[in-house]
Task: inverse folding
């Protein structure tokens, strides 16, 4: 919503610029802090995230502490007038701890306990690990509670993964007892354990999914993932307990991981639930810019979607980019450097969608181990005249000018639903096409028509309020949880527009198929009955024709549906669904509900959503005329609107500003009007 959000810490009323800083790796290099001080000033880096993996430097032996290096880093930051995001070090731990207390080591799904190594590999149930992290966190909070540089806690690092040790098995059983009211009958029913004679008659028989054990009881898989999320959040809550007690005024975050289809598998944690417990959302953004499978504009659209998701997690509150690379990473299949201008462009894109920071992994490149060639602001030669450093410094200067934008948010009338539990269930379902489910990609395909028209979108979960939106789109909502159908009915009855697609409302929250017709709870509001889903081979398409006779392609999925009150807007022209509706519309109360029965090409979405946009009078954030590949986004605090115009193409583009309108370039104070010339990857931040 267009309101000014109060900063979670009073000093977060500027754009944070800086990032992960590991002086703990450089303790034997005395000159390095002085050098960093100088370089930070040159790069206009005002914020450093420290101690993320600092445990073995803080506590080299059990009970032996070395806080002096951290004192110095914090004091130097204060002397520079800079900010510190202080991490709790639980993302990795010293070897002595794993040696002395093996229960802190994670156990894999194959029930083999890991050796000490890597990171993000602790048991989140282990009382010993909880006690150890609470102890070190308490010491950090006691020592730095009133340190002038401290603005934010960074809890652990990219929580993720699961542990299958005996402690976790016991915790899982207790979690299940709670969920099923101590009734094994209820659990047996929810998991449909009559299948392959899997009925349980004692809680002790229940084990987490395993490659050499159970993997085909989908209710179990789903509950395990829910448990893993809840248990990770529980671990996080135990981490922050001493911080809340000793530093109630210092906000808390933990860095979430982004998601782009084709890159990382989804992280496995339900961030919607996690976000309820952080003061500000932060995420780590590593899009594969300049890749060879999609255009820059297509990737930009995907990244825009992910930014909108993180902004929407806390009702529109601006978020932080906790990590991004100033140049390249070390873990993509091909680690390509950002081309000139791309760093500024991608930074402005995050800000345009609601970020109040650009923080890097990492400030200074380490000398050894696996990340020594990962991009950093400062390379091994410590020079401020590298291409990367200069582009970072340019972004630093720009961010200083963008301070007024902090706290401003995005006013969206359109919401796309994205649901973590649905993603888990859909990915686990046996059926459909193995490779063609692509839930995130599907959501992004529906997002496209709005992004291309510069119409702001929130990406929300089914648990968030719907009534503030004129249009709610729920692509592939395979799992519809109890109560959601009712909420959609209320929303549409009161005038909302709701769009659902094929493969919707197939199972309930236990992953049990709905009886009595699909799409289950949404059947009445949609006014249809879905009968069969057909899956196509990658090279196949089916023709879809709309009321005007225009022809489109469906691919991957075609569903055979019957009208039950709805009317058809388009029909299949071939195959077993010939003559059946391919898209339907149902007037319900004061609103309308739509069903898109197949995976239609984007040209169809463009026409379909184009019409809805017109009917609903949905407007772009700022009414300039821009060629394809240029994105215009706005942030507003209710009084002042900020416009971001971004050229995600490899050639010059011209944007036509509205007649008589003038913008003020925030970077240069220049007045912009008429036609605006954007070089390749050019981007402008302006005030209306
Ligand atoms: C993650 C981690 C960082 C670093 C980067 C590298 O996001 O949080 O510690 O490993 O990846 O891209
Ligand atoms: Zn465990």
Result:
């Amino acid at each position: 919503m267009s309101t000014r959000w109060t900063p979670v810490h009073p000093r977060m009323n500027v754009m944070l610029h800086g990032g992960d800083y590991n002086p703990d790796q450089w303790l034997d290099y005395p000159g390095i802090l002085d050098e960093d001080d100088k370089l930070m000033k040159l790069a206009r880096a005002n914020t450093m995230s420290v101690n993320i993996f600092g445990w073995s430097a803080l506590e080299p032996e059990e009970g032996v502490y070395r806080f002096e290096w951290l004192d110095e880093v914090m004091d130097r930051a204060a002397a520079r007038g800079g900010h510190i995001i202080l991490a709790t070090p639980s993302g990795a731990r010293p070897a002595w701890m794993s040696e002395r207390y093996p229960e802190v080591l994670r156990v894999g799904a194959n029930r083999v306990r890991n050796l000490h190594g890597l990171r993000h590999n602790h048991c989140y149930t282990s009382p010993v690990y909880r006690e150890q992290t609470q102890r070190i966190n308490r010491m950090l909070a006691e020592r730095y509670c009133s340190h002038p540089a401290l603005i934010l806690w960074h809890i652990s690092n990219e929580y993720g993964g699961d542990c299958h040790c005996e402690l976790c098995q016991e915790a899982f059983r207790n979690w299940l007892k709670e969920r099923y009211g101590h009734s094994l009958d209820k659990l047996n029913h929810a998991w449909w354990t009559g299948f392959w004679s899997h009925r349980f008659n004692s809680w002790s028989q229940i084990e987490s999914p395993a490659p050499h054990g159970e993997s085909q009881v989908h209710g179990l898989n789903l509950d395990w993932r829910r448990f893993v999320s809840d248990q990770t959040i529980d671990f996080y809550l135990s981490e922050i307990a001493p911080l809340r007690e000793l530093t109630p005024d210092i906000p808390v975050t933990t860095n979430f991981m982004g998601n782009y289809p084709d890159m990382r598998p989804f992280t496995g944690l339900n961030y919607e639930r996690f976000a309820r417990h952080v003061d500000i959302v932060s995420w780590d953004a590593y899009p594969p810019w300049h890749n060879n499978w999609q255009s820059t504009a297509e990737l930009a659209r995907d990244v825009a979607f992910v930014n909108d998701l993180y902004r929407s997690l806390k009702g529109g509150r601006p978020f932080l980019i906790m990590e991004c690379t100033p140049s390249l990473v070390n873990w993509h299949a091909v680690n390509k450097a950002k081309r000139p201008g791309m760093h500024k462009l991608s930074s402005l894109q995050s800000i345009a969608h609601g970020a109040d920071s650009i923080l890097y992994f990492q400030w200074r490149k380490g000398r050894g181990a696996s990340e020594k060639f990962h991009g950093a602001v400062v390379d091994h030669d410590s020079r401020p005249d590298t291409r990367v450093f200069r582009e970072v410094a340019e972004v630093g200067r720009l961010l200083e000018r963008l301070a007024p934008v902090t706290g401003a948010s995005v006013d969206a009338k359109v919401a796309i639903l994205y649901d973590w539990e649905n993603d888990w269930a859909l990915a686990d379902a046996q059926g459909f096409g193995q490779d063609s489910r692509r839930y995130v990609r599907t959501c992004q395909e529906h997002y496209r028509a709005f992004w291309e028209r510069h119409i702001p979108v929130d990406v929300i979960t089914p648990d968030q309020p719907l009534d503030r939106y004129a249009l709610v789109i729920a692509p592939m909502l395979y799992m519809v949880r109890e109560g959601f159908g009712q909420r959609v009915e209320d929303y549409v009855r009161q005038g909302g527009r709701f769009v659902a697609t094929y493969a919707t409302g197939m199972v309930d929250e236990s992953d049990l198929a709905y009886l009595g017709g699909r799409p289950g709870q949404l059947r009445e509001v949609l006014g249809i009955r879905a009968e069969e889903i057909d899956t196509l081979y990658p090279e196949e398409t089916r023709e879809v024709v709309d009321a005007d006779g225009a022809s489109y392609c469906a691919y991957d999925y075609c569903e055979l549906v019957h009208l039950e009150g709805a009317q058809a807007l388009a029909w299949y022209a071939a195959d077993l669904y010939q003559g059946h509706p391919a898209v339907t519309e149902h007037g319900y109360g004061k609103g309308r509900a739509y069903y898109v029965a197949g995976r239609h090409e984007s040209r169809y979405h463009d026409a379909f959503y184009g019409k809805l946009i017109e009917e609903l009078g949905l407007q772009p954030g700022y009414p300039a005329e821009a060629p394809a590949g240029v994105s215009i986004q706005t942030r507003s605090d209710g009084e002042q609107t900020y416009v971001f115009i971004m050229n995600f193409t490899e050639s010059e583009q011209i944007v036509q500003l509205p007649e008589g309108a003038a913008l003020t370039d925030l970077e240069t104070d220049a007045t912009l009007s008429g036609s605006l010339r954007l070089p390749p990857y050019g981007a402008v931040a302006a005030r209306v």
About this structure: The chain has a mean pLDDT of 96. Residues 157-158, 284, 286, 323, 329, 361, 371, 374 surround alpha-D-galactopyranose (ligand 1) (CB under 6 Å). The chain is about 30% helix and 20% strand. The radius of gyration is 26 Å.
